[in-house]
Amino acid sequence: MLRILAGLLRPSFGAVKVFGGLDPHDARDRIGYMSHAPMLYDELTALENLRYFSSLYPGRPSLSPAEALRQVGLDPDLTRTLGQYSQGMRQRTSLARVLLPVPELLLLDEPFSNMDVESVTQMVALLAGFRQSSRTIVITTHQHDHAAPIADWILALKAGRVASFSPGSPTL
Known about the structure:
By secondary structure, the chain is an alpha/beta fold. The chain has helices spanning about 1-5, 45-55, 65-70, 85-100, 115-130, 145, and strands at about 30-35, 105-110, 135-140, 155-160, 160-165. Strand 2, helix 5 and strand 3 (about 135-140) form a beta-alpha-beta unit.
């Protein structure tokens, strides 16, 4: 579902529209997609990773790598390589990578996976802050209890079909 919303795949039937009627493929520069895999280089520092990824957006308004790291609560001057980071720090670095081009729509695949309680709490707080901005966030997760406090809507899928759709309960 997220890959279709990100414009990376086409639906097998039907149509998906974003931003009031655009095909997701035509709106990819307005969409940030954080896949389940971190898509980062373990032998580089977080800042080096983000410098590389920011070079992929030439001529496009974007955050500086240091600012993206600060937005997710990481120190851009940290000299450890990503391979030495905790899972929570890796997930936040992955989120910083997605934030570089300042997307309007954030698509996050399992952002809480393999994180300890403190890291989950930090990630939920970050997402609650982004939720207050003009960004829309779509999260897929098997850990409903982590996302529920910041969700406006909760959609549950079972075997590829909508099992339930209900208002969330934002409390942050």
